[in-house]
Amino acid sequence: MKYIGNKQRLLDFIDSVVQKEGLPQNGIFIDIFTGTTNVAQHYKKKGYRIIANDFMTYSYVFQQAYIKNNQVPKFNNLLHSRNFNINPKSLKSKYEPLKIVIDYLNKLPGKKGFIFQNYAPDGKFKRQFFSNENAMRIDATRGQLDKWEKDGLVNESEFYILLASLIDAADFVANISGTYGAYLKIWRSMALKPFTMSAPNLIESNLEHWIYQEDSNKIIGDLKGDIFYIDPPYNTRQYAANFHILETLARWDNPQVYGKTGLRPYEEQKSAYSQRTKCEDAFADLINKARTDYILMSYNNEGIIPHKFILDTLGRKGEVKVYTKNYRRFRTERDHENRHYKVPDDKVQELIYFVKVR
Ligand SMILES: C[S@@+](CC[C@H](N)C(=O)[O-])C[C@H]1O[C@@H](n2cnc3c(N)ncnc32)[C@H](O)[C@@H]1O
């Protein structure tokens, strides 16, 4: 998924620090700004118990599907219901129920609903985030999930697994260059492909994992773990504004949207870490409250919290080591001609700050 700060391609870098520093091979791994959950998923697969958190609802959907949920869903109630009328016991592979349900959703006829009206060219506002057909298919599918949930035909994890798949599939066909801060005037080829859900790669586990949708600074004092991984926003682009349509798909709350891009109100989801006047205090407060043996923090050399401030703040917990890696810029940022970067080329330096807490 295209997501600002997605660490999918930096997992090896994070792993190399975990290994070099001889961190415990199991225990509790806290990912307090989990976003796509890619880092949390990686360490769940390695056998850690995960505590994940992020204040965005779409991230909470991913946390439900990939972190809290430990099983392949059986959809017992749904498959017994009128639309399917299948005895789940007659199915051979454990993935079959999920495939059958996703197949059913992929064949639903489209409906003109909230996404069509607000984000498709023939909708009331003529925005071009999704093709007309895809917007209608997204509306029909999201509506169906809501109905199944209200009718008690899917349990909590079944609902979130389907919703995670829907959000991924919608994001795949969105007519954007990386964020929902703007739509493209010309249709990119992926946006004209049909909206198609696929079965998510779920992670089976015998361990309990915990998930939250809270402000990181409010929750950190209540969490106790071994490794504290921090990946805060590093620039002034608010996630709530840049991923507003994913938030609406997750909440399905019919918001009063406004402006050129149909933004939902997001005052309550503004991050201090994306505000120059607030980020240092927020970071110092977070580190002050952290109760773990090790701290790993991802950041980059263009971040709005100054390097020296990070070193001083972390330095109060123990000796700080800094690991670096050159990295290609998040694609949409390159496309903005009027943005000015401290580093003039296409590369940013990714950093990992490491502290063994005294
Ligand atoms: C750099 S991204 C994390 C990316 C993640 N590691 C990944 O690989 O997808 C930062 C995340 O912090 C979340 N966030 C920002 N401020 C927050 C806060 N005060 N409390 C909780 N989450 C916050 C954003 O919603 C965003 O998902």
Topology:
Blueprint: H1 11-20, E1 28-31, H2 38-45, E2 49-53, H3 57-68, H4 76-80, H5 96-106, H6 114-119, H7 132-150, H8 156-172, E3 210-212, H9 216-219, E4 227-230, H10 239-242, H11 244-251, H12 279-289, E5 294-300, H13 307-315, E6 320-328, H14 331-335, E7 347-356
Parallel strand pairs: 1-2, 1-4, 2-3, 4-5
Antiparallel strand pairs: 5-7, 6-7
Helix pairs in contact: 3-8, 7-8, 12-13
Mean pLDDT equals 94
Q: What's the tally of helices? A: 14
SSE topology string: HEHEHHHHHHEHEHHHEHEHE
Based on CA inertia axes, which overall geometry fits?
Answer: globular
Largest sheet: 7 strands, mixed
Radius of gyration: 21 Å
Order of strands across the main sheet: 3-2-1-4-5-7-6
Low-confidence stretches: 333-343
Share in helix: 25-40%
Bound molecules: S-adenosylmethionine
Distance between the termini: 37 Å
